[in-house]
Amino acid sequence: MKNTPTLSLRVPEPSGRPGDAPDFSHLQFDPAGAVSRPEVSTAPYEMRDHAFRLVRVLDDEGQAVGPWDPKLDPEVLRRGLKAMILTRAFDERMHRAHRQGKTSFYMKCTGEEAIAVAQGMILSREDMGFPTYRQQGLLIARGYPLASMMNQIYSNAEDPIKGRQLPIMYSAKDYGFFTISGNLGTQVPQAVGWAMASAYKGDDKIAISWIGDGATAEGDFHNALTFAAVYRAPVILNVVNNQWAISSFMGIAGGLETTFAAKAIGYGLPALRVDGNDFLAVWAATQWAEERARTNQGATVIELFTYRGAPHSTSDDPSRYRPGDEHEKWPLGDPIERLKQHLIVLGEWSDELQVEAEKDAVEQVRAAGKESEAIGTLGQSRPSVKTMFEEVYATEDWRLVEQRREVGV
What we know:
Elements: H1 74-99, H2 113-122, E1 128-130, H3 136-141, H4 146-154, H5 187-200, E2 207-212, H6 219-231, E3 235-241, E4 271-275, H7 279-294, E5 300-305, H8 335-345, H9 351-375, H10 398-407
Parallel strand pairs: 1-2, 2-3, 3-5, 4-5
């Protein structure tokens, strides 16, 4: 034993830290259109390579190529582009609102807009989405009132969930948006359970969930995959690999050992690894998984490969742990610019229309801001105290009655 080396631990390190030049040379992507599109009925073990490759549709010139091209109508593409532009404009205003002291917290989804917008457009509002905290595009793509989102962020008197949630943790059942939880990972077993219940009732609704790369290290994620596989739950399980948690990179959650999509293989689930900044690729992969779920063939795990361009939240300073210009150098580009380029190539868009759409988005957000702020921002107005005692029990017991009496409501 004297000749054996001393044991040591490997602590994963990202490719760049503050002051370093961004380096993505370790990333290898399939060319757009190169990955095959298996039949929806393909057995998971026959498509294991899809967990390691990258489904792409848009090439560098903005052309849609390959078998995954969903061949969408230009009007659908324009709606998607406008929803992404509006989502980004909303994020910018609410981030400024935090800096102005109008809210206590906010989280942007810069660079990830294509994911929630495309998937929100594909699925019905009667299907249930179990989001994490960067899927505001899901609500925006479905026309949820911007002022209502702001009211929730400001926790004012018109907050739809009456001050019971942190800012940005929306809840909108009528829009297929399950209440966001601050406890990472919980939404995945919830989605699987909801999907199982739908199937048990003989319904035709499916579920979809989103989880970050870091939260795949939570036990909830793995428990959910077991149930999804065993019971063939009609659910789509998204892993949004945006490279960074609040201060640690995806390697801490195992992203250097294998892909996050590959985690599905051990559970006997089909997996797709997809360019999350390619609106068409996200659409096509989700459409594939949706058909599988609706035809009783079970769950699909989709890794959406993207990049978190903004801080993790308003509590975060990414300049302390990654190169300052890393987002600008991301090799898969910006989802809005890429869809814009594609529409221009099709002759269905222009730089002038882009400017007009951006101005219109700013105006929509400004109008919603005036409406919401007239009700009140943080600390200026709040839901009635009596709402603390409501909508928890169908019939109040004596303790609640006594507490309400003491408070005088």
